[in-house]
């Protein structure tokens, strides 16, 4: 459903059966939708809830706004500290929920407060403290929808801020497979490690499963080379986790959100072939944004 306002969303959720799952979705970056689809209700915010404004040295952004839009508004207003949002390919809502970050900074460093519609249909203001941010995590409960966020920074020169944004853009272009079909950074960086380095050391660079591949350009990105199913992409990720665990003893945690239901696989029945049965069907994953990406 696409609500017109936060109050409209609140009213809808109040009337919705409490047992119905609710999943807010931005532009689909940092997301694997399993082949069986998503049960319940998917909430997608409209353009009317993606507006960005500057008030008293703070940036107020609708949850549907893209990170680059927020960073650009801050630059134009001479507010430094939000440049890293240039490297976040998703929306404000998703960035707040997962405490997104890149280039040494996280949303928790700049968030003042967020307006949240709870699964029960209440419109509430949550402080950064209440959100309980940790690395790539917040305490927002399932079904709660971020509808707006307020960010703060420090005074800066627009030209200097813009130069930093350009540097981030150039670094992403050079180091990440931005022109490929990818959902962005796949695994969280374990404490004291870089996920890509662990994956590379385990011999997973370029590893494939069907049309799913570990990027040769940046090992912490999984690619859809053409017709990979969600099952193949997720199974490849699990294979990477197994190999990294066996090589270094480190357990990688998924950063990409995996949602939805599995479908029984009939591939063996049709082909009679052996090999790993993922237990999931092989339907194509919808094409994500070409500029999906994330931290180094």
Structure, explained:
By secondary structure, this protein is an alpha+beta fold. The protein folds into two domains: 6-162, Uridine Diphospho-n-acetylenolpyruvylglucosamine Reductase, domain 3 (2-Layer Sandwich); 182-271, UDP-N-acetylenolpyruvoylglucosamine reductase, C-terminal domain (Uridine Diphospho-n-acetylenolpyruvylglucosamine Reductase, domain 1, Alpha-Beta Complex). The chain contains eight helices and 17 strands. The strands form six sheets. Strands 4-5-11-9-10 form a five-stranded antiparallel β-sheet. The chain has a four-stranded antiparallel β-sheet with strand order 13-16-15-14. A hairpin with a 5-residue loop joins strand 9 and strand 10 (123-127). Helix 2 (67-76) packs antiparallel against helix 5. The longest helix has 19 residues, at 230-248. It starts with 5 loop residues before the first helix and ends in a 25-residue tail after the last helix.
Key attributes of the depicted protein:
single chain; Uridine Diphospho-n-acetylenolpyruvylglucosamine Reductase, domain 3; globular; 5-stranded antiparallel β-sheet; Uridine Diphospho-n-acetylenolpyruvylglucosamine Reductase, domain 1; 2 domains; 4-stranded antiparallel β-sheet; 296 residues; disordered C terminus; alpha+beta
């Amino acid at each position: 459903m696409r609500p017109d306002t936060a109050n409209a969303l609140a009213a809808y959720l109040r009337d919705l059966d409490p047992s119905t799952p609710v999943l807010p979705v931005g532009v689909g970056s940092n997301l694997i939708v399993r082949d069986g689809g998503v049960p319940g209700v998917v909430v997608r915010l409209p353009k009317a809830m993606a507006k960005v404004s500057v008030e008293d040295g703070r940036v107020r952004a609708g949850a549907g706004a893209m990170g680059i839009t927020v960073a650009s508004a801050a630059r134009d207003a001479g507010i430094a500290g939000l440049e890293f949002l240039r490297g976040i390919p998703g929306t404000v809502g998703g960035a707040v929920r997962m405490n997104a970050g890149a280039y040494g900074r996280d949303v928790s460093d700049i968030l003042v407060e967020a307006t949240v519609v709870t699964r029960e249909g209440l419109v509430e203001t949550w402080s950064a403290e209440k959100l309980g941010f940790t690395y790539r995590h917040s305490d927002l409960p399932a079904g709660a929808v971020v509808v707006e966020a307020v960010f703060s920074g420090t005074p800066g020169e627009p030209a200097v801020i813009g130069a930093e944004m350009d540097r981030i853009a150039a670094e992403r272009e050079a180091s990440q497979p931005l022109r490929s079909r990818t959902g962005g950074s796949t695994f969280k960086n374990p404490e004291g490690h870089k996920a890509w380095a662990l994956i590379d050391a385990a011999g997973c660079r370029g590893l494939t499963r069907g049309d799913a591949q570990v990027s040769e350009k940046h090992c912490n990105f999984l690619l859809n080379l053409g017709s990979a199913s969600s099952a193949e992409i997720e199974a490849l990720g699990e294979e990477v986790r197994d190999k990294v665990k066996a090589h270094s003893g480190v357990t990688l945690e998924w950063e990409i959100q995996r949602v939805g239901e599995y479908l029984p696989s009939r591939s063996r029945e049709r082909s009679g072939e052996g090999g790993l049965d993922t237990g999931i069907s092989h339907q194509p994953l919808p094409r994500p944004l070409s500029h999906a990406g994330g931290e180094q």
